[in-house]
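FW: tagging you since you asked about this chain on Friday. Here's the raw sequence from the shared folder, copied in full. Didn't touch anything.
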Amino acid sequence: MILKILTKKDIQNAVTMAEAIHAVKLAYIQLSQEKTVTPLRVQVPVEDREGVVLFMPAFLPQIGSLGAKIVSVFPQNLQSGLSTIHAVVVLLDAETGCPISLLDGTYLTALRTGAASGVATDLLARRDSRVAAIFGAGVQGRTQLEAVCTVRAITKVWIYDPSPDVAKAYANKMKQRGDPIPQDISVAQTPKQALEEADIICTATTSSEPVFADEDLCPGVHINGIGSYTPKMQEIPGQTVARARVVVDSISASLAEAGDLIIPLQNKTMEESDIHGEIGQVAAGYIPGRESDSEVTFFKSVGLAVQDIATAALALQRAEELNLGRNIDL
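HL: got it, structure written out here
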């Protein structure tokens, strides 16, 4: 049995952000059309380390892609200099069930999560958006900015992180990336400063409480919330969620896992009917996206296996075309 191994570098060389955004958009459409097999992910808590391991399978029959991701989220790793998130993705042959590829899932997770916000930003943010604010200066925050800059002509960026040194390193790193990321990247001293001009906001943190105040938002802002993945985590103020046009990646998954929605629902500041719909429905034209320049739009992503498998399948296809990766005979 031959298994192709794709490293982070292989995936980076194989797939551009624009290509990942397109792949994730198609996956979202298939999901909302109920043309995928996507069970809710299984969570295995590791309580003494405040960690969790997620098992995420999916089958996309339209593109013949089958596989699963195993991802761990251990915030305490930062204390020892390790990344919070580690992951691997396994792709299987949809005809035989044989494993065909093992991919680095850590970078792929950041890539597909950025791509998800790219899809949502393209569909929901104002066309004249020029200023982005990123909350969270980790790996996820990097691909969030890359994706936003891929779909909008961003000219200025604010980065906020509780650690100023981490935020400064992020700003310096992202300035080196070049087009489409602008050189004008500033470290905000407070969340309010980050929001003063923001047209687009991305939150990529592990916070259990809102990372900014609702009253500091500009009219017509678009928000991508990607950090809250458990019922007790909350990045976005309940007041913001209550007044925003809320679009999710999956209604069932969000209601089961997303504290950004579960907490306002529990507090009776919103109803399930206030959720406008799924991003795949917007992408397919089944429901409208933004309807005015003044409304606040909020995309809540908990992360879905269809994103991982669609992006991994694309990476494998490109890697084979470019002769990337290493074949292992199991």
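FW: The first strand starts at residue 2 and ends at 6.
HL: agreed, and The chain has two domains: 2-108+306-329, 125-304.
FW: great, closing this out.
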